[in-house]
Specification:
This protein is an all-alpha fold and about 170 residues long. The longest helix is centred in the N-terminal third of the chain and has 27 residues. It is built from 5 helices and no strands.
Length: about 170
């Protein structure tokens, strides 16, 4: 990015954050007339999103004038690197896409909670070589989060085709 394009990119980022802030506030505001059960999710998401936008705007204000161009890679850039445009890069992307399709298939068959119990440790262990105990702990924490969301926010998750056939209560 050239020195002249840098202020334009910064203004575009700020404009995008302001647009998101307006969207989150509008969602929270519009949901005020909903019944309690329907209001919880949009209000909480709208408030959390608006708070994150305000934090980002404050961060941009505090760091204004401090940032300089560097030759280091920008991790926020969505450009495709040269090594990702090789056959191996496309295979890695296709592999990850296959993992996501597998998660959707598991959710369709077994339901969201059981699919998460199967998928998360499998992905962490087989794809990212994570330790078994850490993978199991993460999966257990996710199950607790899913159950808590179902109980406290009355969140409904997909049950799957095998619901009622397995001794799984979720």
């Amino acid at each position: 990015m050239t020195q002249d394009a840098y202020p334009i990119a910064r203004r575009l980022r700020t404009a995008f954050v302001v647009a998101l802030l307006i969207l989150f506030i509008a969602v929270a505001w519009a949901a005020q007339d909903f019944r309690l059960g329907a209001r919880l999710f949009p209000v909480y998401i709208g408030m959390a999103g608006a708070a994150l936008c305000v934090i980002e705007l404050l961060r941009q204000l505090i760091t204004r004038g401090r940032q300089k161009l560097s030759d280091e890679p920008n991790t926020a850039d969505l450009s495709v690197e040269a090594d990702e445009q090789t056959a191996a890069g496309y295979l890695r992307a296709l592999s990850f896409f296959g993992w996501m399709l597998g998660y959707y298939a598991l959710t369709f068959v077994f339901g969201f909670t059981l699919a998460t119990v199967i998928f998360v440790p499998s992905l962490l262990i087989l794809r990212f070589r994570a330790p078994f105990l850490a993978s199991a702990a993460i999966a257990g924490g996710l199950v607790l989060l899913i159950v808590a969301l179902q109980y406290f926010l009355m969140l409904r998750v997909p049950r799957g085709l095998t619901h009622g056939m397995l001794p799984w209560p979720f």
